[in-house]
Amino acid sequence: MTKLEQMLNEAASVVILGHVNPDGDCMGSCLAMYRYARKRKQGADIRVCLKNFPEKFSYLDGYDQIQTDVKEETFDLCICLDCSDKERLGEFGVYLETAGASICVDHHVTNTGYALENVVEPGASSTAEVLYGQLSQELLDKELAECLYTGIVHDTGVFRFSSTTAKTMEIAGKLMGMGIDFTKIIDDSFYRKTYLQSQILGRALMECIRFMDKRCIFTVVKNQDMEFYGVGPKDLDGIVDHLRTIDGVECAIFMYEVDNHMYKVSMRSNYVVDVSRIASYFGGGGHVRAAGCTMSGSIHDVVNNLSGHIEKQLLAVSEDG
Q: What is the torsion angle, in degrees rounded to the nearest 10, for the CA atoms of residue 297, residue 302, residue 305 and residue 310?
């Protein structure tokens, strides 16, 4: 029996939390945990709490049961998924503070070990992959498989990122074997975009700028751009990944304005740059090849500050080579 199952067995009330603005791995992991807990602890008080979650994941079991408001209540157990530090839990962090026990299941190398128990595997492709190893196989079903597969697909970029391993593919294969419509999951939740999302993507790509001998690239979406196209932060998913695939690019930076002189930054790298180190320096976090943070200043200030850290890593590799 895993530590997660042991703690679940001892709890009469459970709350499941993920990070703010949950992505596919967070959504898939949280809803997989929600279904699993309900199956294993029938009659227990099980909740899943998230905010600002994308509608494209509405096919996942339990999506319509997600709670979005904080209430004055406590739980025996708080399960945190795909969240590297307690600040990223947002306002739901109060449930972590007041819970009788807590466990975090994650794969971020920047995880701070903030829960009472922490199951963190930085080498795993996704939190969904880590969670799969914590669950009893006999309780897995098609709906659970859809959740876990969604998490793995999104954090591996449909098995394209370097974090994808033979173990990742083996788990994905077992989940596919449970009868899920994996093609539809990939098309509808990963590739399909609305007309407006395609327009803002085109705008962002059209205005991208290469620098540092064309090895780096960045683009920015301002508040006025989002207002003009009628889109929000959720509609900006995937822009940084398009930048990363441009020929010759090692490091891609995408920023969108969240306030006056305040930007949400997403970074991706291909082979050399550890963007998690850079993001951590500026108060963010993530993975070696995919990370993010929030930075203040002008666009020039933000890019200039990031480029200094990127250049140091590129020079270090050149000197070693």
A: 170
What distance, in Å, lies between the first and last C-alpha atoms of the chain?
Answer: 47
The correct CATH number of 3-191 out of 3.40.50.300, 1.25.40.10, 3.90.1640.10, 3.40.50.150 is 3.90.1640.10
- C-beta of residue 85 within 8 angstroms of C-beta of residue 120: no
What is d(CA 214, CA 299) in angstroms, rounded to the nearest whole number?
Answer: 18
Whether the Cβ atoms of residue 285 and residue 263 lie closer than 8 Å to each other: no
Phi first, then psi, for residue 266 (nearest 5°) are -120, 135
Q: pLDDT at residue 321 above 70? A: no
- Would you call 80 exposed, middle or buried from its count of C-beta atoms within 10 A (0-12, 13-18, 19+)? buried
Inform me whether the pLDDT recorded for 166 exceeds 90.
yes
Angstrom distance (rounded) from CA 106 to CA 113: 10
Strand locations in 43-162, DSSP E? 45-49, 77-81, 101-106, 117-120
**Fold classified for 195-320:** Diaminopimelate Epimerase; Chain A, domain 1 (3.10.310)
φ/ψ bin of 268: left (φ > 0), alpha (ψ from -120 to 50), beta (otherwise)? beta
Q: Would you kindly state where each structural domain of the chain is located, as residue ranges?
A: 3-191, 195-320
Cα(59)–Cα(145) distance, rounded to whole angstroms? 12
Q: Provide the 8-state DSSP code for 240.
A: H
- In sequence order, which residues have a C-beta less than 8 Å from that of residue 100 and are 6 or more positions away? 11, 74, 75, 76, 77
pTM of the model: 0.88
% of the chain surpassing 70 pLDDT: 99
Residue 266: DSSP 8-state: E
Asked if residue 219 lies in contact with residue 256, where contact means CB atoms within 8 angstroms, the answer is: no
Collapsing DSSP to helix, strand or coil, 176 comes out as helix
